[in-house]
């Protein structure tokens, strides 16, 4: 197909947005040597092909969606989005040419698009039709046909067309009809359509408008036979032009222009006036007509004998008139599938149709179906349509708008094309020459040849760079996927021992603005051989237990996703996030912090699935990426950490004088409260309910007794040399920042402050338990929790129990055996406690004897059931060891050793 | 021509936080935000001129200007236009305020729900009532044009304070709508609520009357229309109301009273198409053909005048609230070509062949002549299809004695459609050789040949006439297509493809050819054709009469007597051929080939044929 290689000439480059020009809105038209061009922005350029320079740039008040030329009247009509139609005289345009010619005639200047000095703002008076809903239009002699998005339906309107310089307002609407289908989008707010509808004017040969309509891009003259067949006897008899509308929903319908004329303002009856010809079932992007049969010798002007319509995805309709065996006139209708998505198309001479996709500009020959080499095609009768279309590549990619130039060379075709990168070019096709004739080499010839070769190289290189980019993207995505696989394997295969990638969580208090916040610090450490690259993210989920006082509230989880931007082997990254207290000053403990690594397939693979220059194709938004659901990716859990009350306690009383801790701020930082508190001054009684309770109600107390032996076995290794009470306290506060001071001072009781500001008192003493063991009294350690706030007491109690549970499980794993216990007595104790509080038996054993009446109240309080230890967090192994009521079992086991 | 400047529509700039007038190109000045209007700007020299006051000043000034400007002179129109511009600016100010107020989410819930919530809120300030009623009147106007009558009735019921189950009659509700008096210090308005209510009353009475007229509840329509006519009614609307009244009365069987209303409608200023059309219908009903045709002529003339653009209306008038005339409405008079066609066909039907021919030629010129800049629609889709118009024109021309012109018209039709006609493999000679089925041809092509034959008959060229009739018959006796849907081309052919019409067409062609043979003295051939036509269409008595005559000429007495007896029996039966609805050209054609004096023929036959037999 060597003869199809076009001679491509670059004429000029125009500004285009970053992603390149989108198809659908740019237009290029040509009249003589002048080229009128819009790129979809507010500008319309006029380029002189002979002088090779940009002669004028018009600035419109909105995006330009459509251009039409009326050569006879020398007028340019411009549709401005959401504004209306503007009409400009071409002579006016040429005036500005002569005015600008003096400045510089350098053609190089046109390369950088518009120079601001030549930008001519368009006079608002040039607007001949104000209508914000217009989507497209076409002009025909003295008629202006518009297609507007009505409130419910598409609306075709017919106006008498004003000349430039005449009375600017239209003489009035002549007719109107609504099409049967509603436009997409809500009727309230018609959105800017992705695909504009297409209008095309078909005239019968005898029509007076057919003769005057010379260079319109959208007008064709059809042969009488096809015309009558498609549009009916009346249209042929009246010799009335017909408007074809191609809608974004795929409908192809027609309106006989002369029947559209109505009296007054009454809209026509759409059932009688609008005829649906076909349904392409994809957005119609082009309607045109072709001459497929060779002309008879004596016929001067050629009329098209084949109607074509192109859908966005490449579905093509071709209609011709033919006769059946009986001699009746019947339409021959054929659908083809061309490679899509089709950006634009144009009809050329000799039955050729050009259509552009993002990767190529193709030509199909409807006269011979692209298969001229097989004349024995069985089902292609004389005058019939080919059964198959073979598109031939012209090796020009990403052409967003096309037009067949009126300055075609002898026997060939010249196309004007605008590429997605904003380059205006001409493609000269010499389709008739089968073999290149030997040409004599002259100097001028050589120059031209070199120029052609260079521009050919330019086209090829543009295409190569596009393809290369796509390949690169895919390679990169594959590499990323490979690495992600390595990381996942490393993490999943090392269940035992230290994991190659770990995340540890610690908590500290710090002051943010006016409030003390409990901060969690997650340290992500990569000790594997692979690096975590783009696409990996650290997900930290903070799960807050439901508030004790609100029974019905569910626990809430917040997930933070932090992209890991290249974490090489051996490096670490720290993430700090606030845990609370929240705005209400409450911190609902315990809080569980779970860390996981997430790998987003969408981010890495998505780019490769969408080639870069298809991204401006709106319909592709929904195509390949749908393969990947929104949340698709790989999730690798790393660690889980529970923050309980013991870790959150602060001890201002322990602060050493030289490192005076800043005074604790009440987390309830209501400025009014602070102000009132300050006004009341020291000594005066605070008025809040909490402080009232602290003043008048005795504190809640809970006590836990644990076997001293068991504790010693747990604690003994690391806390030798101090009393068992001190060691127990240190063990309890091991994850608290204050453990060092506790150890240094060898404390056995400590006064702490809970996150909400109330006091929590931990007292540890050694006691002896009699009656439980037949062998005599047992040595035990009593841990007493005391707080004015019941909630805090419960949370602290819960935290202690959690540790006890862990301890018991560890000891049981070591295989120590329980001592001989009087089970009966234990049961008796439990039964005593269970009687009054049937609903809260979990607490029974652990709650010790309260010195005051309130302790009994505590036990009866139904809320205490919330203190239940969370067995779910334990290993299944440990869970199997535990009976149904874990707290009960714990005490039982606690006396084993 | 006025030149617009590109300054922002507001005369001031938006400055958040501070509100003060800015010296701007426009004469209108004011602060940004009414929401902050009570915060008097600190540095302002006029501490009491809040933006609301400024807005009102400007408003009142514009209202005065607009009230002065009502008139037709160019200067006044210019003034009104300026006032309109000014109002637009003021509106824009309000819209700026509205966007600051974030009203959008509330607007989502629909207008009627919004009205509901406003009217049922307990804390409605009494000083807001006049403004609220005024707004309700505007809402009513809007809902009237968009046909939300249910919403409108509900709103009025609520405003009237009536309980549920109260009157649903919109007119009654409008009449009893008690508008609170405007406060004296309220801002000036161009159109007050009372005026608006009167306009609403007239418009809704008229709309209601029209609707009832269409649905056939005539007495109610009459009372509604009388209501509209008695209200505040500008002249153009009064003309429409009178026309509707005329239509209503003529439907009720009061043609004389109807005529009176139509005449007063026609006297009311500019000539009004629908009234003329209705008058023509009435005259036709009354049998006054001259008056009927005269009104149709006037209608054509009226419709040929393009009405110029009207002066922009500043106020809400009754005309604005009226529905657009639809083809179903009695006030729809169609386009000029439709009226012309009606006139022409009526002329042809009433036997005024010369006039009919002229009107048909005018119509064809109107439709087909490309020299005029204006294009005209065909009488389609309600009327006949275009080929029928051609055929009727030809029939009218033949009837008017202009056979040559009729031939030209037929020629034109055939030449225009030549490309759409089926391909004849061998048009004349060896057609019989091919045994394959012949292509289907639209019936109007055959009819064209029939009319051409008739034209030749009139010109005295029997040979050409007979060949045309033969051609017609050849096309007619071809196989009709089994499947009726033949693609998009067969849209207008339902009218002429009815079996009765096709039968009559065949009979007409056979009789015409038979008459041709008779004239050229070939009685046997004529006999064959007449026999065929009687077989083809036994109900057609014309064929029998012609057959009878031919039989008598050929002296075949027995057959003639048998036929005569059958005919006698038939003529005694009631005639029922009036039920057929044939195309007009075919009816005309059939009237030519009808034997002129059947009765005398029968009597003559009786005396000349039977008496010798009885003897």
Automatic annotation (TrEMBL), chain A:
<dbReference type="GO" id="GO:0036297">
    <property type="term" value="P:interstrand cross-link repair"/>
</dbReference>
<feature type="region of interest" description="Disordered">
    <location>
        <begin position="97"/>
        <end position="118"/>
    </location>
</feature>
<dbReference type="GO" id="GO:0043240">
    <property type="term" value="C:Fanconi anaemia nuclear complex"/>
</dbReference>
<protein>
    <submittedName>
        <fullName>FA core complex associated protein 100</fullName>
    </submittedName>
</protein>
<dbReference type="GO" id="GO:0000785">
    <property type="term" value="C:chromatin"/>
</dbReference>
<feature type="compositionally biased region" description="Acidic residues">
    <location>
        <begin position="100"/>
        <end position="112"/>
    </location>
</feature>
<dbReference type="GO" id="GO:0005654">
    <property type="term" value="C:nucleoplasm"/>
</dbReference>
<feature type="region of interest" description="Disordered">
    <location>
        <begin position="870"/>
        <end position="897"/>
    </location>
</feature>
<dbReference type="GO" id="GO:0005829">
    <property type="term" value="C:cytosol"/>
</dbReference>
<dbReference type="InterPro" id="IPR029251">
    <property type="entry name" value="Faap100"/>
</dbReference>
<dbReference type="Pfam" id="PF15146">
    <property type="entry name" value="FANCAA"/>
</dbReference>
From TrEMBL, chain B:
<protein>
    <submittedName>
        <fullName>FA complementation group G</fullName>
    </submittedName>
</protein>
<dbReference type="InterPro" id="IPR011990">
    <property type="entry name" value="TPR-like_helical_dom_sf"/>
</dbReference>
<dbReference type="GO" id="GO:0007286">
    <property type="term" value="P:spermatid development"/>
</dbReference>
<keyword id="KW-0677">Repeat</keyword>
<comment type="function">
    <text>DNA repair protein that may operate in a postreplication repair or a cell cycle checkpoint function. May be implicated in interstrand DNA cross-link repair and in the maintenance of normal chromosome stability. Candidate tumor suppressor gene.</text>
</comment>
<feature type="region of interest" description="Disordered">
    <location>
        <begin position="23"/>
        <end position="47"/>
    </location>
</feature>
<dbReference type="GO" id="GO:0036297">
    <property type="term" value="P:interstrand cross-link repair"/>
</dbReference>
<keyword id="KW-0227">DNA damage</keyword>
<dbReference type="GO" id="GO:0000785">
    <property type="term" value="C:chromatin"/>
</dbReference>
<dbReference type="GO" id="GO:0009314">
    <property type="term" value="P:response to radiation"/>
</dbReference>
<dbReference type="InterPro" id="IPR019734">
    <property type="entry name" value="TPR_rpt"/>
</dbReference>
<keyword id="KW-0802">TPR repeat</keyword>
<dbReference type="GO" id="GO:0006974">
    <property type="term" value="P:DNA damage response"/>
</dbReference>
<dbReference type="GO" id="GO:0001541">
    <property type="term" value="P:ovarian follicle development"/>
</dbReference>
<dbReference type="GO" id="GO:0016607">
    <property type="term" value="C:nuclear speck"/>
</dbReference>
<dbReference type="GO" id="GO:0007005">
    <property type="term" value="P:mitochondrion organization"/>
</dbReference>
<dbReference type="InterPro" id="IPR039684">
    <property type="entry name" value="FANCG"/>
</dbReference>
<keyword id="KW-0539">Nucleus</keyword>
<dbReference type="GO" id="GO:0043240">
    <property type="term" value="C:Fanconi anaemia nuclear complex"/>
</dbReference>
<dbReference type="GO" id="GO:0005739">
    <property type="term" value="C:mitochondrion"/>
</dbReference>
<keyword id="KW-0234">DNA repair</keyword>
